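Morning, I've got a small favour to ask if you have a moment. I'm working through a protein record and want to make sense of it properly. The fold is given in discrete form, as structure tokens running alongside the sequence. Can you walk me through what the tokens say about the fold? Thanks so much in advance, here it is:
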Amino acid sequence: MTTSKMHIMMFPWFAFGHMTPFLHLANRLAERGHIVSFMLPNKALIRLGAQNLHPDLITFYPLTVLAAEGVPLGAETTADVPCESHVLLGGAFDATRGQVEALMASLAPDFVLHDFSHWLPEISSRLGVKSVAYLACSVSCVSLSIVPRREEESPVRIRLRPHEIQEGQGMYGDNLKGVVPFGERLYTSIASSEAISLRTCCEIEGKAVEYFRNQWKKPVLLSGLCLPDAGRSGILDPKWADWLTRFKPSTVVYCALGSETVLPKAQFQELLLGFESTGLPFLAILKPPNGSSSVEEALPDGFGARTNGRGIVHDGWVQQTLILNHPSVGCFVSHGGFSSMLESLMSDTEIVILPHMPEQILNARFMADELKVAVEVERQPGGWVPKESLCEAIKSVMDKDSELGSSVRSKHSEYREMLSKEGFMNGYVDKFIEDLRALKAKS
């Protein structure tokens, strides 16, 4: 096999949950000498720029994002708009088509990796660039809906419950006139691309991968998990390192519900009371709830005084990989984003999942019911999470005498040891590059 270097262009959907894993893959490709041209919104450079580990080989190409109907002026990523408006950002995303085409024509890459740009394969085909749909989400979840025969034949037995399906109606804009729904975007992107790439490994999602491959009848390339290496992620901010070190090993509860989850004030306060009632130290990374300008002003009455010294509520970005690998952290309460799920699998923390959107709910079911490495927090119909449910879920995995906790810890340990084996992750990336070369060699 030739060792010539390739030029890969990347154009992910304008959400950090998409752009970040694309960049992780870009770093893996660049450390093997390949060139990556990465297209992203101007503002995203502020957050992602420092994560470019190979600036000599990875070049960012900022795109001008124009205003779109129904989207606030200046919004460029899904972090800038509420969940129900994410699909409306698609208009601004699609309006970058001219910029994307001009860059592709100028740079002439070998491949373009993309996800929600359903119009991109037509452009790349005309310019002689091979398009690959790169899915950074769980293939087990995607295989339930984004395959030709849909969920009835899927070997994955995770499902949304009836009330969850109804509650999720319209969240992705399926009923909005003139808006291309996410499902249609992704389906068309996959169907029109020359190959599909999945950010997963057979050891975790083997059944779903095989099902996906059989359904689509086109090359399916696996990149592996492509997670950041904690040893190369820098040093934990002293602010958090000093605070965490005050506590005994494996006692701190770390919560992060993602940059896009904004809770109603009543639910925000209920969750904090749930953390308080565990009696454990906790670090909760949360956005200010609806109607509040800061997390401080939305805290329950007396909460700060009661939890002073053992509880922190913070709004802002933190070094999640380093926090998860800190010896004092024993439990991770996550929103169920796929990247966070993979990071939790690689860590030594127990996993509690508090999902919000349908995809996150499916991720939670996959982790809890299929892999059996996590516990999902029970919600009431309508989505309300009582403080008792959150407290019970945390204690069920933190209690050393808990039968459920013991079972979850054992399964988690098995997966962590397997995924952490020397050469495991690199093997997938190397095979991914071989498969790209084989695809390039086809006329």
Summary: The first strand starts at residue 7 and ends at 11. The mean pLDDT is 90. The CA atoms of residues 256 and 281 lie 15 Å apart. DSSP finds 18 helices and 13 strands in the chain.
